[in-house]
Amino acid sequence: MTARREPSAPPTLPGYRYVRLLGLGGFADVFLYRQDLPVRDVAVKVLLAGSLDDDVRERFQTEANLMAQLSHHPSIVTIHQAAIAADGRPYLVMEYCSRPGLAQRYRTEHVSVHEALRIGIRLASAVEAAHSVGILHRDIKPANVLTTDFGWPALTDFGIAATVGQGGGATVGMSIPWSPPELLAEHPTGDERSDVYSLAATIYSLLAGRTPFEVPGGSNSAQDLVTRIERTPLPQLGRQDVPPALFAVLERAMAKHPSRRYASAQAVARALQQVEADLGLPVTPLDLPDVPLAPDDVRQPAQSDDATRLRPVIEVAPSTPTWAAVPEAPTSDGLPVLDVPAEEPDEEPSSGRGRTVTAIVSGVVVLAAVIGVAAAAMNRDDGPNPQPSQEFSVPGDAVVGQDVPSPTGLSGTRQSDGTFVFTWTNPQPAEGDRYLWGVLSATGDPELAFVPTTSVAVPPTGDDGQVCIQVTIVRADGRSSDEPTKACAS
Description:
Blueprint: E1 16-24, E2 28-35, E3 40-47, H1 54-70, E4 79-84, E5 90-95, H2 102-108, H3 113-132, E6 135-136, E7 145-147, E8 153-155, E9 162-163, H4 192-208, H5 222-231, H6 244-253, H7 265-278, E10 408-414, E11 420-425, E12 434-441, E13 444-451, E14 455-458, E15 467-474, E16 485-489
Antiparallel strand pairs: 1-2, 2-3, 3-5, 4-5, 6-9, 7-8, 10-11, 11-14, 12-13, 12-15, 15-16
């Protein structure tokens, strides 16, 4: 297996002095620089020289523009500058956050209910702010929530964001453990309620110390996770200090069908504020511009949705992903599973306001056509007369007992820029076939994603210049190859 690739050389930037490497990504590296005037530390995200095709440049420009549009919000990363270095590489300069982000914390710390509620409400205000200007984040997860020097969460990495109205299409990239069922369907669709699901899944991870449908000590492949996300009731958190009302909020926000979720991130925040009030905790205020505020009376019914109705914006082309993250090594604690989903509350509590600043950008960039997998039909009640915009495609029961072949002829060749192009053959192609693939490493399970074609491009990842991948055929009905095909190239 291979080690991680060497970092790219930090560019020379006028007015900044290089300090050290912060992180590596598939198509960009993040460095710590010291700005000369005003004097401060900043995080600089720099595209790799070998990834400067038109699609990646467009994704990078989209990320810069969206972050600039939203970075005035106290719980969204602040961007200071976007430019082209002397060596031709685009870069973003952002405010640097030195404290551990949620990706590190949820695996290693016991996060209190009080803090999880406070973080959840502040993140919900950030998501609502994005929605209010017509932007869907589409990849809310712990790795995309950094922590400012003052302890505030800061949402980052809008690289695969889309404008409202585009919804979730075949080009949507997402991290499977925190993705809603409608983004994992054969024909992905999504709206604000998809971000609501991922927001709640992130809060769940903070409380549980694992991803929502991860089975401690069990099999947690991408196929396993997708099947559970689509069919399995949300597992209990396994903590005695989490009140039933909080679990009920998360359960509703993560309902299988979008029509059963909260209609907005603001509604999630109000419900979390109600939990705070019921527990006798100080109610965390929200940062929501032009919203009727009631910080001292969170028990009031929700205000009119007109206050936060989404406004049309200029259409921004979505980015193209490379691979979707799968969970880290599972924890060892066993968790019971609910037999019946909880009843939905009839009303939602009200809102308030608050404050924060910024962070660095997540290093991993997703690139490839992620069209999701429907491993089996969801056992769910769609509810009475759902609207067409609330529907998402789920195939019928998966056919069992019919073998799906493994790919053949998998091989890779190194290109002049160091990128490896792997190709393979589907010996028995069928309509709707797609391919689950990932880069193998010595540190754990591969990061997996779906592509519709029989080839992928991979940047070099090891000191020895070798890259190894695995590929599985996935049918439209959810069946897949019994064993992935693996190959290396150097």
